[in-house]
Each structure stands twice: as structure tokens, then as C-alpha cells.
């Protein structure tokens, strides 16, 4: 799940380069997906260690 969020954030960042009119919205969602993916990765790593 976390990996898919991280891949999604990279994809949205790439799309923002191709569509300058929608760049603000795409970059915002890219950042949200990036934070969500990193949070899920941290929770997963913590859960695997405990």
C-alpha cells in the first residue's frame, strides 16, 4: 500500500509537468500521496520491528 502511494505521488508529479494548467492541483495531491506513503511505510516498519 505504501509503495503504491509513493508510485502514485511520482506519477502525479510527472503529470503536473505535462499539464501546466492543472499543475497546482496535481502537485498538491502528489504531496499528499507522498506524505501518506511515507507514513504508511514508517508504520509498517515499526509494526514489523515490534
Structure, described:
With 50 residues, the protein is an all-alpha fold. The chain has one domain. Helix content is 88%, strand content 0%. It is built from two helices and no strands. The protein has helices spanning 2-18, 23-49. Helix 1 runs antiparallel to helix 2. The relative contact order is 0.21. The chain crosses the membrane at residues 28-48. Keywords: Membrane, Transmembrane, Transmembrane helix.
User: Ends: how far apart?
Assistant: 20 Å
Largest sheet: none
Question: What is the radius of gyration?
Answer: 13 Å
Strand content: under 5%
How many helices? The count is 2
Helix amount, in percent? Answer: over 70%
Number of strands: 0
In the residues, how many domains can be counted? 1
What structural class do you assign from the helix and strand content?
mainly alpha
Low-confidence spans: pLDDT under 50, at least 5 residues? none
Q: Give the helices and strands as they follow along the chain.
A: HH
- The quaternary organization reads as single chain
Mean pLDDT: 94
Morphology call: elongated
Transmembrane segments: 28-48
Keywords: Membrane, Transmembrane, Transmembrane helix
Question: Which key features would you list for this structure?
Answer:
50 residues; mainly alpha; 2 helices; 0% strand
Could you give the topology of this structure?
Elements: H1 2-18, H2 23-49
Helix pairs in contact: 1-2
Summarize the structure.
Helices cover 88% and strands 0% of the residues. By secondary structure, it is mainly α.
